[in-house]
UniProtKB/TrEMBL annotation:
SUPFAM superfamilies: Family A G protein-coupled receptor-like. Odorant receptor. The chain crosses the membrane at residues 28-50, 62-80, 100-122, 143-160, 198-222, 243-261, 273-293. PANTHER family: OLFACTORY RECEPTOR (PTHR26452). Pfam families: 7tm_4 (PF13853). One of its GO terms (molecular function) is G protein-coupled receptor activity. Gene3D superfamilies: Rhodopsin 7-helix transmembrane proteins. Keywords: Cell membrane, G-protein coupled receptor, Membrane, Olfaction, Receptor, Sensory transduction, Transducer, Transmembrane, Transmembrane helix. Belongs to the G-protein coupled receptor 1 family. It comes from Chrysochloris asiatica. It is found in: Cell membrane. This is Olfactory receptor.
Length: 314
């Protein structure tokens, strides 16, 4: 009996085709991305610097914030510089290994940030619900262990997904309809019918939901503790320490959820590009603004730093 021969094209590179073909629009996107990237780097680097040099910013919350800023700097640096270079050079290719590295690093840093946000919610729970035991519970060794666990979990998360995504066969075309390699767009290029990565996605979504439920439970206890404070001013002052974290969590989860609703689209569109920008550029850029504007200690440290730089002899 004749055997059916299946032609499998070995793909060695992908083409990132998220931007329109128009030369002027590509330059405009490159300029906009550069400004956003520079803003994100400066904001996060400023927070890292302040939490290192200022003695009043050595509490566990600022240790976690420093790591959050480091993650955000790395996260936005994985995708944006490559996209800017591609737009300016009009060369949209990325190697197979480069694409796999991008997938791993994006998931690695996103997973680490999510784990760290859960740790930060526990920090707020311990500070508000158990203030007398806070220093014992959130001692330096515990903080280092929790941050290390966050980075490790992100690494495991990224490794699992990059293995699942690139276990499939890509039979062409090799055009990724995004400005970076993301999992939903790559899976649309699969021809093997392998469901391994889909199983990983479902399992990770279930685990992420369980973690989110734990975060919600911690805030239920926090709200209960805040409502028991007799004075209105005391309730507001206590709850205000949670507002930056709540804003960052809302921004991170909502942008990712909205973006992935339409990221598997097989046709490029302005909406698809906007949603990708939403979850890859917005959180790293706005997180420093949220924490610096809502935190009195951060604003005081920032004023001290600028006074020292502008009036060094005072």
């Amino acid at each position: 009996m004749p055997q059916k021969i299946v032609n499998v094209t070995i793909i060695t590179e992908f083409f990132l085709m998220g931007f329109p073909d128009d030369w002027m629009l590509q330059r405009l996107y490159a300029a906009l991305f550069f400004l956003i990237y520079l803003t994100a780097l400066m904001g996060n680097l400023l927070i890292v610097t302040l939490t290192i040099i200022d003695r009043n910013l050595q509490a566990p919350m600022y240790f976690f914030l420093k790591n959050l800023s480091l993650i955000d700097m790395c996260y936005i640096s994985v995708t944006v510089p490559k996209s800017i270079i591609n737009s300016l050079s009009n060369v949209h290719s990325i190697s197979y290994l480069g694409c796999a590295s991008q997938v791993f690093l994006v998931i690695f840093f996103a997973g680490t940030e999510y784990a760290l946000l859960i740790v930060m919610s526990y920090d707020r729970y311990a500070a508000i619900c158990h203030p007398l035991h806070y220093e014992t519970v959130m001692n330096r060794d515990s903080c280092v262990q929790m941050v290390t666990a966050s980075w490790f979990s992100g690494c495991v998360y990224g490794s699992i997904h990059v293995a699942g995504t690139f276990s499939v066969n890509f039979c062409g075309p090799n055009s990724v309809l995004q400005f970076f390699c993301d999992i939903p767009s790559l899976l649309t290029l699969s021809c093997s019918g392998d469901i391994l990565e889909y199983a990983f996605i479902i399992a990770s979504c279930c685990f992420a939901f369980v973690c989110f439920a734990l975060m919600v439970v911690s805030y239920v206890y926090i709200f209960s503790a805040v409502l028991r404070i007799p004075s209105t001013q005391g309730r507001f002052k206590t709850f205000s320490t949670c507002m930056p974290h709540l804003c960052v969590v809302t921004l991170f989860l909502s942008s990712g959820f909205i973006a992935y609703l339409g990221s598997a689209s097989k046709s490029p569109s302005s909406l698809n590009l906007f949603m990708s920008v939403l979850y890859s550029l917005l959180p790293p850029t706005l997180n420093p603004v949220i924490y610096s504007l809502r935190n009195k200690d951060m604003k005081v440290a920032l004023e001290k730093l600028f006074r020292k730089k502008m009036f060094p002899r005072m």
